[in-house]
Amino acid sequence: MPELPYDALGEVISKETLSFHHGKHLKAYVDNLNKMLPGSGLENLPLSEVICKAEGGLFNNAGQVMNHAMYFEQFANNPKPMGEKMKALLERDFGSVEAFKKEFEQKGVTLFGSGWVWLSADKDGKLVITQQKNAENPVTMGLTPLLTFDVWEHAYYLDYQNRRADYLTALWQIIDWQVVENRL
Ligand code: MN
């Protein structure tokens, strides 16, 4: 279980949401993964490689552990602002930081059902946004994941009910861009 260095995230994510999302949902994925890995032949691999080789329930639980670890790690109550390097890359590949944020939110809003919206770097360093269903992670497509918004209802329903768009817009306030840039 990744430890959380916060127990609430201002007005953006409540303590109650975090207690269920981290303490119940993520905990269940971690427990399931720990039950399924022994004897799978994949137990000595890094999680990102497990995800690329596993199928079925093992893939789903391994994916959800990695996705949530990255999701919770990128937030802070006093987040570091975006640095010049990330700003330049976003401007190069999306036109502007605002255009990137708009497209990222739109991809989150229009993802049907449960899943994740991701910002990743491809093999040439170009930044791309992907919509991924359920437990999917861009590492299976050869991409390097940098930033992710969880759009499963369990991520926002207690705080925002059905207003997924409002939740996605609010998340920018707590993104620690230093964490995101370190993933480049
Ligand atoms: Mn989640």
What does this structure look like?
The chain folds into 2 domains: 15-73, Helix Hairpins (Orthogonal Bundle), CATH 1.10.287; 84-182, Iron/manganese superoxide dismutase, C-terminal domain (minor pseudopilin epsh fold, 3-Layer(bab) Sandwich), CATH 3.55.40.20. It contains 8 helices and 3 strands. The protein has helices spanning 15-36, 47-53, 56-73, 84-94, 97-109, 157-160, 164-171, 177-182; strands spanning 115-121, 127-133, 144-150. A 3-stranded antiparallel sheet has the order 2-1-3, with helices on both faces. Strand 1 and strand 2 form a beta hairpin. The longest helix has 22 residues, at 15-36. The protein is globular and about 50 Å long. Bound molecules: manganese (II) ion (MN). Manganese (II) ion (MN) binds at residues 21, 25, 68, 150, 152, 154-155.
Query: What class do helices, strands and sheet pairing give?
Result: mainly alpha
Report low-confidence residues grouped into runs of 5 or more. Answer: none
Gyration radius (Cα, Å) is: 16 Å
Question: What is the succession of H and E elements?
Answer: HHHHHEEEHHH
The number of distinct structural domains comes to: 2
The tally of helices reads 8
**Amount of helix:** 40-55%
**The CATH top-level class label of the largest domain:** Alpha Beta
CATH topology of the largest domain: minor pseudopilin epsh fold
Label the overall shape: globular
How many DSSP-defined strands? Answer: 3
**Major sheet details:** 3 strands, antiparallel
CATH architecture of the largest domain: 3-Layer(bab) Sandwich
Q: Kindly report the average pLDDT value.
A: 97
| Sheet with most strands: strand arrangement | 2-1-3
Termini separation comes to 24 Å
**Hetero compounds:** manganese (II) ion
**At the fourth CATH level, what is the homologous superfamily of the largest domain?**
Iron/manganese superoxide dismutase, C-terminal domain
Strand content: 5-15%
